Amino acid sequence: MLALLFIAQAVQPVPVPQDSALRAPLPELPRPPPPEGPVLPLAEALRLAREQAPDLAVARERVEQARNNVQRAWATLQPTLTATGTYTHNSLPALIFTFDPVQGFGTKEGSKNTEAGTLVFAWNLFNLRAFPALTSAKQLVDVAALTEAQQRRELLLAVASTYYSGVALRELAGVAFQQARATHDHARDALARFEAGLVQRSAALRARIDALRADQETQRALFSYASAKSQLAALFDRHDTAFELAAPERAPEEVRGAFRELMEKALRERPEMAAARANEEIAARLKTDAWEQFAPTLALTGTGRYNNPATTFTGDKTTWAVALALTLPLYDGGFRYVALKDADSQIRQARAQTRGQAARIEDELRRAQLDLDSARTLRDETEQTLAVSRENERLVRAQFDAGTASQVEVSDAEAALFQSESNALQQRLSVELAALRVAKAVGAFDLEGGGK
């Protein structure tokens, strides 16, 4: 350093040309923005998603609607009671027939107003089709609940993935600030060396370019972090981003095991598979319903009527009747046979959907494991590359200070270091996200109270 000072004193200072960009002051060093709010832990974000996410609210309401359909199915087995009342004003009076033992039959003019009332009691005592419909309605509640569980896991995975991505972007912004600070210091040093006649003007310009690019990377990282927070807020229906993200105290637990064991666990515990099997049973019940359309039905009907004036010769204003009706469908144009064929088609379709769901789960699990293995390998390699890049950057800077390295070499070393820092953060994030996807593929992902 003393030698450089002596050389600088001996060298004639070089003025900065009037038309050079070096005469403009170096932009102020970017500063980290103040926190927008308190830290939102991952566990709190997951809780908000469970409680406030609109998509989950829709899924829960579908479960409630499925329960209501069970009550509708029960209603077909219950008796009904219907009352009807009418009041009529006629333009002409009613003609009432009379009978007198002496005068015989006759007529007289009645009132222009008539009142009538009917009370009907009906009960389907025997209807075999009501029972498979009731069983299917109950099972559809389970299907709706399983669908809600699937959507909840998908949502929580999206929340966790977005959260970890936001944390990585925040750390990347921190790296960008460090890079900007280093490049600003180096740009000022390069300008001083140019003015001292120790380096070419191109070296000072290249150093300033590096500083400006570092400022751009800093702004880009900040905007990406803000975008991740907005995306996270939308997942649990929050209308502001007045919070910050922080790395969870513990990384997501990795599900380990042989592929065959994990596949068996996934087929056993994934809600999609349980819903597919339930849909198979519902489809099979359609065949039962189709056969029961050939069975007779038995209905009990009771009717009470009130008419004023009376409509009978006896003058009674009230009448009643009880009927027991047995209905046997003999021929309906072939509709029932079509129902049998359609039921067979529905069964085949449900079985094919179950096989397709199993194939998708197998593919999802296999790719998740491959992604996790790849992420681990690349993470280890990027950590080694990062260590080499840091050492290289320190060495090149020292060589530049000693006058044995060019500004181009310094710029390349800084760019390589920033890229290595970015890659290392990305691969750490990839390992965490891949572990979450494996857990979700196996059916062990719900993060109940986890991620603190």
Written description of the protein model:
- The chain is α+β, with helices and mostly antiparallel strands.
- The protein folds into 2 domains: 46-77 and 129-294 and 341-452, Outer membrane efflux proteins (OEP), CATH 1.20.1600; 82-126 and 297-328.
- It has helices spanning 2-10, 42-52, 54-75, 130-195, 201-235, 259-269, 271-292, 335-401, 407-442, and strands spanning 80-89, 95-100, 104-109, 113-126, 297-308, 318-327.
- Helix 4 (130-195) runs antiparallel to helix 7 (271-292) and helix 4 packs antiparallel against helix 9 (407-442).
- Residues 1-11 have low confidence and may be disordered.
List the helices and strands and how they pair.
Layout: H1 2-10, H2 42-52, H3 54-75, E1 80-89, E2 95-100, E3 104-109, E4 113-126, H4 130-195, H5 201-235, H6 259-269, H7 271-292, E5 297-308, E6 318-327, H8 335-401, H9 407-442
Helix pairs in contact: 2-4, 3-4, 4-5, 4-7, 4-9, 5-9, 6-8, 7-8, 8-9
Task: Give the overall average pLDDT.
Answer: 84
CATH topology of the largest domain: Outer membrane efflux proteins (OEP)
Largest sheet: 4 strands, antiparallel
Structural class: alpha+beta
Give the beta-strand count.
6
H/E series: HHHEEEEHHHHEEHH
Strand order of the biggest β-sheet: 1-4-5-6
Q: What Rg is obtained from the alpha carbons, in whole angstroms? A: 41 Å
Instruction: Tell me which CATH architecture of the largest domain applies here.
Output: Up-down Bundle
Can you say what the CATH homologous superfamily of the largest domain is?
Answer: Outer membrane efflux proteins (OEP)
End-to-end gap: 50 Å
Shape: elongated
Low-pLDDT segments, ≥5 res? 1-11
Portion in helices:
55-70%
Q: How many separate structural domains?
A: 2
- The proportion of strand residues reads 5-15%
